[in-house]
């Protein structure tokens, strides 16, 4: 996600592969947009980023992130971000940057009471491992068994082994995981449906995600992602989430919109291209 500047508001991410599934995760693309905007406007901090994922981005080919400042000011900058690959636009979004200010007043959503990470086992999903990233799910709720049901929510602890050099890279790595949990949370209440079916017998993919950064966070310390699906139906799922630091501070809030539907024709799972 540490995209490289090429001049004129253009940034490149190198090809990375091969992988089990040749699709770049939506959270990684949004994280790349955070990095590109932060590098393009170095005097301001990314406050919020939103992106629509219209077309698959492949791991095995380089992609570009294009940043255009639509309005630059001493306090705020509004930037348009586009992700391109093979000369086609794949994703489009907006980023808000802020010069910062001291608290006038301060309040935040409290951290939920959940099992601490030391009492949970690591989550290992074949084909989705990220080197240096560890995840632990409260109550083992991210379960491949489609018959196990529960409320439409997931609580996941995440941390990275290595500390990135810049604050915007901490923000990008924090962003990476926000799109992992919506589909699984949405299917939890429904017997016979589960995350293990995604991209195989049901068609799923992230279509839009927005994150707002509140407080600074160190991604090498445990961060709690609290995701709740607020609506599931009509081929869609929507979730709201919070990221809390280990000491209880609210680091970020996010919303995610996903596609969740059956394949149109038998055998379509093998050729599906949804993110």
Keywords:
275 residues, mainly beta, Thiol Ester Dehydrase, Chain A, 2 domains, hydrolase, Acyl-CoA thioesterase II, ACOT8-like_C
Concise overview:
The chain is mainly beta.
Oligomer: single chain
User: Which class do the helix and strand fractions yield?
Assistant: mainly beta
Strand content of the residues, in percent?
35-45%
User: How are the strands of the largest sheet arranged?
Assistant: 1-2-4-5-6-3-9-12-11-10-8-7
CATH superfamily membership of the largest domain, which one?
Answer: Hotdog Thioesterase
Q: How many domain units?
A: 2
The rough form would be described as globular
Q: What is the number of beta strands?
A: 12
Mean pLDDT: 91
What does this structure look like?
Keywords: Hydrolase. Residues 133-253 form the Acyl-CoA thioesterase-like C-terminal domain. With 275 residues, the protein is mainly beta. It folds into 2 domains: 1-99, Roll (Thiol Ester Dehydrase, Chain A); 114-263, Hotdog Thioesterase (Thiol Ester Dehydrase, Chain A), CATH 3.10.129. The protein is built from 3 helices and 12 strands, in the order ββαββββββααββββ. It has a 12-stranded antiparallel beta sheet with strand order 1-2-4-5-6-3-9-12-11-10-8-7. Helix 1 packs antiparallel against helix 2 (167-176). The protein is globular and about 55 Å long. 38% of the residues are buried. The model is unreliable at 268-275 (pLDDT under 50).
Helix and strand topology:
Elements: E1 4-7, E2 10-13, H1 26-40, E3 45-53, E4 63-72, E5 76-85, E6 88-98, E7 133-137, E8 153-160, H2 167-176, H3 182-187, E9 202-213, E10 223-233, E11 236-245, E12 250-262
Antiparallel strand pairs: 1-2, 2-4, 3-6, 3-9, 4-5, 5-6, 7-8, 8-10, 9-12, 10-11, 11-12
Helix pairs in contact: 1-2
């Amino acid at each position: 996600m540490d995209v490289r500047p090429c001049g004129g508001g253009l940034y490149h991410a190198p090809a990375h592969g091969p992988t089990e599934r040749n699709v770049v995760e939506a959270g990684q693309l949004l994280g790349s947009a955070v990095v590109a905007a932060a590098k393009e406007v170095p005097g301001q901090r990314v406050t919020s980023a939103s992106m629509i994922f219209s077309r698959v981005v492949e791991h095995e080919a380089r992609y570009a992130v294009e940043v255009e400042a639509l309005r630059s000011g001493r306090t705020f900058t509004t930037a348009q971000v586009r992700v391109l690959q093979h000369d086609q636009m794949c994703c489009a979004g907006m980023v808000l940057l802020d010069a910062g200010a001291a608290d006038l007043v301060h309040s935040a959503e409290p951290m939920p009471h959940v099992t601490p990470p030391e009492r949970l086992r690591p989550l290992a999903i074949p084909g989705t491992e990220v080197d240096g990233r560890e995840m632990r799910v409260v109550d083992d709720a991210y379960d491949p068994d489609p018959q196990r049901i529960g409320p439409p929510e997931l609580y996941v602890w995440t941390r990275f082994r290595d500390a990135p050099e810049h604050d915007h890279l901490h923000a990008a790595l924090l962003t990476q995981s926000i799109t992992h949990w919506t589909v699984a949370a949405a299917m939890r209440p429904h017997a016979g449906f589960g995350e293990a079916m995604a991209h195989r017998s049901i068609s799923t993919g992230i279509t839009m995600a927005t994150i707002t950064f509140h407080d600074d966070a160190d991604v090498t310390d445990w961060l709690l992602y609290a995701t709740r699906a607020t609506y599931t139906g009509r081929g869609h799922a929507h979730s709201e989430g919070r990221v809390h630091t280990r000491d209880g501070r609210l680091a970020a809030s996010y919303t995610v919109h996903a596609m969740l539907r059956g394949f149109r024709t038998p055998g379509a799972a093998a050729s599906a291209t949804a993110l």
